[in-house]
Amino acid sequence: MTFGQTLPLPGFLRAAVVILSMFCGVAAGQAGQGTAVVPERTIYPGEELLAELVREVVVTNPNLRAGYAAVTEEVLGKVTTRTLLPGRTIPVGALRDAWAVERGATVPLIFAGGGLIITAVGTPLENAAVGDFIRVRNVETGVIISGTVLGDGSVRVATQ
């Protein structure tokens, strides 16, 4: 194994190499940056996230664990399931959709089939968001039936 003597770089060339490597390092570091949504104040479980409660910040920590909300639109209208601290990222797992129907409230029940539409009134046995499949007690008969929650707060009864 042989080693040869290297030629020293002139001072200005050495400075240019150092500066160029610094810019490349900064550019590489910024390539992975994104945004995160953080609360402006403490947000307690059950609160709905509104635009004035959150803001987007640039992520500067490359070791930040994934699974946080990156853009504001991702969290607006969601309800938090745990306390969110100001300046901390909002885990997506700590959010849920707002309830479309609440347990114990009265909701319209709709059955449609074979050209026939039957409506009744029921009380959900659980809280549910739009699209959830829930159990509902028919107020008039007391029979428990199942159905899907619709966007207008009614429940479409499932056929058996």
Describe this structure in words.
- This protein is 13% helix and 28% strand.
- It is built from 1 helix and 9 strands.
- The strands form 3 sheets. A 5-stranded mixed β-barrel has the order 5-6-7-8-9. Strands 1-2 form a two-stranded antiparallel ribbon. Strands 3-4 form a two-stranded antiparallel ribbon.
- A hairpin with a 5-residue loop joins β8 (144-149) and β9.
- Residues 24-31 have low confidence and may be disordered.
At a glance:
With 160 residues, the chain is an alpha+beta fold. Helices cover 13% and strands 28% of the residues. It contains one helix and nine strands.
Total strands: the figure is: 9
- How much of the residues is beta strand, in percent? 25-35%
Count of runs of 4 or more consecutive helical residues: 1
- What average pLDDT do the residues reach? 84
Helix-strand category? alpha+beta
Question: Helical proportion?
Answer: 10-25%
Morphology: elongated
Strand order, largest beta sheet: 5-6-7-8-9
Biggest sheet character = 5 strands, mixed, barrel
- Radius of gyration, whole Å: 28 Å
Terminal residue distance: 83 Å
What is the helix/strand order? Answer: HEEEEEEEEE
